[in-house]
Design goal:
about 325 residues, two-stranded antiparallel sheet, about 75% helix, mainly alpha, 14 helices, about 0% strand
């Protein structure tokens, strides 16, 4: 266990070291891939924490959308600074998740899955029908953040540092949750609800808590993504975005709240970037990879490490 923990810290330090100097040797295209890796990692972690409490959500796209539009409206309509708009997007997602979660988290299984899908579609279609939010044309022209010292946001270098910073905060927060008493309670609720109930654990409190945490960090990265891309439209937040959050978590492994989505997101972003030019190849290969993992590595690609260590022993 100690060696496993040490290996994780070594890998984390190496990753941070890599990104600290990435702008000096990575071309712009690969810097963009790293940014998308961070975005989908955060979305995957947010989805996985909801799964930990026993609920299968199809609503990650809604919170990416709400966070992105909140920040865009704050900057374009109210001349709000980027950093404040970022926090406003995350805060609004948390408030909406709290209000909605109290209602929909009383549902379980297929009912929760369907209602989160419907919620995401309501958000998207409402925005598409609202002229103040740009309707189907969306919003664009958000100003880039001011430079921070030597970090400039007129190039991808500054954005790379920002998204890696957001990823670090997210990973640290959820790593602490996973190792804490709250993380164990989440696992009890998800895997043994009857046992958890016999211990007097109040389900709704922890389910809503997980739902709000997921919405906060998903909205945070959604807000940053909208400004990074320079435009946002409702057509970009279909069910596919929710599906990607599920794919990266399942590919990497749902057994690890942080490392699973990080690994799954890395594979997804590579395939997504290089197979997009081949019609049908991306969906076919990603589908085959996902099916192979589900059948042969049900605990995800992260379980390869444990299998390798067992074989060495």
């Amino acid at each position: 266990m100690k060696m496993n923990r040490l290996a994780q810290w070594v890998i984390a330090i190496l990753i941070l070291g890599f990104f600290a100097f990435a702008h000096t040797f990575l071309p712009n295209r690969w810097q963009h891939i790293c940014i998308m890796w961070a975005i989908w990692s955060i979305a995957g972690i947010g989805w996985l924490v909801i799964l930990r409490v026993g609920e299968f959500s199809c609503g990650q796209a809604a919170f990416l959308c709400i966070g992105g539009y909140s920040a865009s409206v704050a900057m374009l309509k109210f001349d709000c600074p980027f950093w404040l708009a970022l926090l406003l997007g995350a805060a609004l997602c948390s408030i909406i998740a709290l209000i909605v979660g109290v209602v929909i988290l009383r549902l379980r299984g297929l009912y929760f899955l369907v209602i989160t899908f419907v919620f995401a579609e309501i958000v998207r279609l409402t925005i598409a029908a609202t002229d103040y939010l740009g309707a189907s044309e969306g919003l664009w022209g958000m100003s880039i953040p001011k430079n921070i010292g030597l970090i400039t946001f007129s190039t991808k270098q500054g954005w790379l540092y920002l998204f890696i910073f957001l990823l670090m905060i997210t990973c640290f927060a959820f790593w602490r949750v996973e190792k804490s008493r709250i993380g164990r309670i989440y696992s009890y609720i998800g895997t043994s609800p009857d046992l958890a109930q016999s211990f007097g654990i109040y389900f709704m409190k922890y389910k809503v808590q997980a739902f709000v945490m997921s919405a906060f960090f998903t909205g945070l990265v959604g807000a940053a993504m909208a400004v990074y891309l320079g435009a946002i439209g409702p057509e970009g937040f279909t069910f596919y975005y929710s599906l990607v959050a599920q794919i990266v978590a399942i590919l990497g492994g749902v057994g690890s709240l942080v490392w699973g989505p990080l690994l799954g997101s890395f594979l997804y972003t590579i395939f997504d970037e290089y197979l997009v030019y081949v019609p049908g190849a991306r969906s076919l290969i990603m589908g085959m990879l996902l099916i192979s993992v589900i059948f042969f590595l049900p605990e995800g690609l992260i379980s390869l490490q444990r299998k390798f260590l067992k074989r060495r022993e």
